[in-house]
Structure formats: C-alpha cells, structure tokens
Amino acid sequence: MRSVLLAIDGRCGSGKTTLAEMIAQRYGASVIHMDDFFLRQEQRTPERLAEPGGNVDRERFRRDVLFPIREGKEQFEYHRYDCTRQELGETVHIIKSPLIVIEGAYSCHPYFGDIYDIRIFMDVDPAEQQERILARNGREMLSRFISEWIPKEELYFRTFRIKEKCSICLAEIPHFPTT
Asked: What is the tally of structural domains in the chain?
C-alpha cells in the first residue's frame, strides 16, 4: 500500500506544526519536520542562501526522506539538524503509515517535484505572526525572524507561487494543548 503524502507549508507562526500534530494524533500519521533539514554550516554559501528556498537542505531531504517513501520502504531514518549545536544530531526513525505528513516551510519546494497528494498552505496575520514568534522564541529571535527568516520565506512563497499551488489554504490554527 502506498502512503498518502500531505505537505503543510506556510508562514512561520501560522500553526503548521500544531496542525501536523493534530493530524498525527487523529489519524496515526507519521510526521516529518522540514526544520530537521536546515543547511549545515559548510552548505551556507552566499550563493545558496541567495536562492529562494535555499536555506533548507533539499538534497538531503530528497535522498533521506522522499526516495525511501517513493521506494515504499517500511521504515527509514534520517538525522535531525540540531540548531543549538549547528550540526546533525539525533536519528529520527520513521515507520511507514497510511498517511505521512511533511510539515514546515519549504516542504512544497519545486525541487521535490509533484510528489504530494495534498498540499496545505498555512497563512497568518502579520501582527499575530509576530506575537506568536515572540512568545515561542523570545525578543532577540523575533528580531532575527523579522530581518532574516520571514523575508526568505516570503521570497520563496512569491517566487514559486507556493500558496497558489496548494489545494487547501487555511488561516492560522489556534495554539491549544494537543494532549
């Protein structure tokens, strides 16, 4: 049996992770986070970082996640990028399930081709986005999101028309306990 692949892309702070967790709990889906595929230090060249969507390790994601899924592997693993240590860290084990959710900005990058059965775009009001980032990451990181990561995401969304290519567009998911 082939797994259904669901991508949840969209703006930071819009509730992508929350929605993925809700789907996983409700339907027993496996969830893979694009945050696990940030570029390693040696990959962060000015040329790569200037590319729309260039700050994610597309090549490793395709090799370690998409190829095993397409090959129908019953299980596979990859190494999560550890932002604190700035290197690959713990091993994530994925067991094939009827539904696999790929969650995070850049999950719908055209580099991956037309692999998804369903694409969701998560949107959020800019003021709400900043409140959520502040609550989640603190004031110093909010400044970095505003000056660095949000503009990179917006360039990616515009360049590749990500929102328009998604079959479902949702406003933010409220943050409430999922237990």
From this structure: 1
